[in-house]
Amino acid sequence: MLQQTQVNTVIPFWERWLRELPTIAATAAASPAKIHKLWEGLGYYTRVRNLQKAAQVMVAQHGGQFPQTFDEVLALPGIGRYTAGAVCSIAFNEPVPILDGNVIRVLCRVFGIAENPKEKITNQKLWQLAEQLVVQAIESAPEKSIRGKSPPVLRASHLNQSLMELGALICTPRSPQCLICPIQKRCVAYRQQRTEELPNLGKREPATARRFVAFIVHRNGRLLVRQRPAGVVNGHLWEFPNVEVAVQCPPEEAAILLFGGAPQELSPLVTVKHSITRYRMTLDAFRVRLAQSPGKELGVWKTPAQIRQLAFSSAHKKLASAAFESIMTDR
Length: 331
Hints:
Blueprint: H1 7-20, H2 24-29, H3 32-39, H4 46-61, H5 70-74, H6 81-92, H7 101-110, H8 120-139, H9 155-170, H10 188-191, E1 208-219, E2 222-227, E3 238-239, E4 242-245, H11 251-259, E5 265-276, E6 279-289, E7 300-302, H12 304-307, H13 314-330
């Protein structure tokens, strides 16, 4: 859940998940509809499918327990080098490195790395630096606690958490708080007054506008919805019939593209704007009345109560709320 999503956003989803699926075995056995509904609103839905695959691997290969070594964690579906390193160092104090955006920024500034960290050679250099730091942290730890009274010193865990926190709270992308930074004296960027230019992330790709037109088709208290196929963006989720069009395309033309004929009536319902990576998406929704009943390939008819049980992307969930309100107004 924390991949690509902030902690404050994740917490209510995490709590709801644990209420519904409190064990690894329960997650492994849950239906696709169940896991997608619990994930609804978090986005990047490949994560939840990988989560279930990982749970199934744990049940099959690890006795339903989470593995505790880097190689075993890295082998789980959906787990990359950063996530495996974060889990194993923070939870198990294993001396393995981490490298996220915050850590990259700290290392580039402290060590004065001017090359683009996205480039392969520079990225490898940063991983090596991160590994050297966490290994040194472990080697500097005392062999045992004094008289057995002190808790073990979790140097790998504390070091990696400190790097992430330093980047999140002090060594921020803009206006870093260098005057209160605990490693200010060791920072090359601070000494050379280069904090604003490091890290060198290169030019951002310009945002691309994309427009979709969705249609709310209402018949006998039911709405037409369809499920996205596996293997595409938002696969397995439900949505209202829609089509991607040119920015200036009239909705009537979009309806003809989707339904094969001109609509009898068309009225605007709501516009939803959102962003996915570098894309700026506009979703215009219209209530529509068709001359002929749409074919089965365009969707299935569901009542509002049934629709509330399905998992929708955030944008189409907003369309559903607007559609339900519009139907109630008609009554």
